[in-house]
Write a structure and sequence with these properties.
Layout: H1 4-39, H2 42-68, H3 82-111, H4 121-148, H5 151-178, H6 183-211, H7 218-229, E1 236-245, E2 248-257, H8 263-280, E3 284-293, E4 299-305, E5 324-330, E6 335-342, H9 352-359, E7 367-370, H10 375-383, E8 387-390, H11 397-405, E9 410-411, H12 419-424, H13 428-440
Parallel strand pairs: 2-3, 4-7, 7-8
Antiparallel strand pairs: 1-2, 4-5, 5-6, 8-9
Length: 441
């Protein structure tokens, strides 16, 4: 989530929708109850009591969202977001209770069917008003619930949609009862009660699972893992855990990166991971990123060599001027030559090392062994989290890997020469030799 202000505004939006829904539901319940009493419609009176019960559930949702909007404090450092989940749990219980009561009423109406010849105009009108009001509220509740990821509002929107069907059944029952066909009323009420029981059980289950920190969104978990793995410098993603907290989520992930990375760079990488996760999902409140050193079965090494001769190829004097590059897979106990790369930039005059680095960037190189490397190429490789080791002497690829295993190679923390020497196309030793000859002359 980008800011606390944005979160509070989203929660206030949910509170407003819940408050308006409470008023509308209460008004409709009063209208249905009054007309039911005046015209003797027991079905309309039962529906009025059902709507009155909905007022309690909406109020519970509003109260939960109000608590969730409270500021974080020393006592509640993670906020009160789960108050909304507790309210959703309470709503699930109330919906179950309403379903049981409606099933009981439907069963009794089957046992003792009633028919009335009264004019159904006003009772039918009250039922139609209830249908229109429920359609309006369900739409608003769903929009607000999806916007702020409020489980209680989404549960209430589903319950309100069912209330629309209940009111439609009430309307049909009133019309059929006025024509002396009461049995249909009891059967339809039983059918609707089963749907309400199903909704209550689902709402209760989701609330309990949320309070138990269950992973309710494996697709989001996989998406976040893929997003983290695509960030340059992240070698592996150990795990991604998502904790639902009311309308928001908290993410805990562990990434692995180069063990030679500085503390500053590791912290910078963790900040980048956090930013990528939060920017793509506004319902994520907090991201915890744990950085671990990368340990895998093998590493991919790049060695500039003078000729193509397998692992016996001898290292070249300079990274950018090597005619070939050996790509070697270094395992725990063995090394495998995977490929040779021809230096297609040998005829270039400037920034050959930079061009080579960009050309091989997609190969997934972990280590570079070199005798000399310029400043620009060195910086670019370090930005790509490639570890660079200095090789002294005319060693073969096999001998270099053996020296690496025995920790005999020095890790470079700076280039061997600057930009000017790289652009002149001369190695430092060559430049020094020419200067010496000039002095002797």
């Amino acid at each position: 989530m980008n800011s606390d202000v944005e979160k509070k505004e989203l929660l206030r939006r949910g509170q407003r929708v819940a408050f308006v829904s409470s008023l509308v539901t209460l008004g409709v319940a009063v209208v249905k109850g009054t007309i039911g009493v005046v015209y003797g419609s027991q079905l309309l009176i039962a529906d009025a009591f059902h709507s009155a019960g909905d007022v309690v559930t909406v109020a519970a949702s509003a109260f939960g969202l109000w608590l969730a909007a409270r500021k974080k404090s020393e006592k509640f450092p993670y906020g009160l977001y789960r108050a909304e989940t507790v309210a959703s749990l309470f709503m699930g219980l109330l919906i179950l209770w309403a379903g049981v009561e409606m099933a009981r009423d439907g069963y009794l109406k089957l046992l003792k069917p009633e028919a009335t010849g009264e004019n159904p105009l006003f009772p039918a009108g009250a039922a139609i008003l209830s249908i229109i009001a429920n359609l309006f509220m369900a739409k608003r509740q769903k929009e607000a619930g999806e916007a702020i990821n409020s489980q209680s509002l989404l549960a209430k929107s589903r319950d309100t949609w069912l209330d629309t069907y209940v009111s439609a059944i009430v309307l049909i029952g009133i019309l059929l009862a006025s024509r002396g066909i009461p049995h249909v009323e009891g059967c339809l009420i039983l059918l609707i009660s089963l749907l309400i029981l199903k909704l209550g059980a689902e709402t209760l289950w989701v609330s309990v699972m949320s309070l138990l920190d269950a992973n309710l969104d494996p697709d989001l978990q996989a998406e976040i893992g893929s997003m983290c793995a695509a960030i340059e410098g992240v070698r592996s993603v150990s795990h991604v855990r998502i904790r639902p907290s009311g309308p928001f989520r908290m993410v805990d992930c562990t990434i692995q990166t180069s063990p030679d990375l500085s503390l500053y760079k590791a912290h910078e990488l963790a900040d980048q991971v956090e930013e990528v996760i939060v920017s793509g999902h506004r319902d994520i409140d907090t991201v915890f990123v744990h950085v671990e050193p990368y340990r895998r079965e093998s590493l991919l090494a790049l060695i500039p060599v003078m000729s193509v001769n397998g692992l016996e190829s001898v290292i070249h004097e300079h990274f950018g001027r090597a005619p070939y590059f050996a790509i070697v897979r270094i395992g725990r106990e063995d090394a495998t030559l995977e490929d040779f790369y021809y230096n297609e930039f040998l005829d270039e005059k400037l920034h050959i090392g930079v061009k080579i680095t960009k050309a091989i960037s997609g190969a997934g190189v972990d280590i570079l062994f070199t005798k000399q490397i310029g400043e620009l190429a060195f910086s670019l490789l370090k930005e790509r989290f490639v570890d660079i080791y200095l090789v002294e002497g005319a060693l073969s690829a096999r001998e270099i890997i053996d020296a690496y295993r025995k920790n005999r190679l020095l890790r470079l923390h700076a280039p061997t020469h600057g930009i000017e020497e790289s652009e002149s196309g001369r190695a430092p030793e060559q430049a020094d030799m020419k200067e010496s000859l000039s002095i002797e002359e």
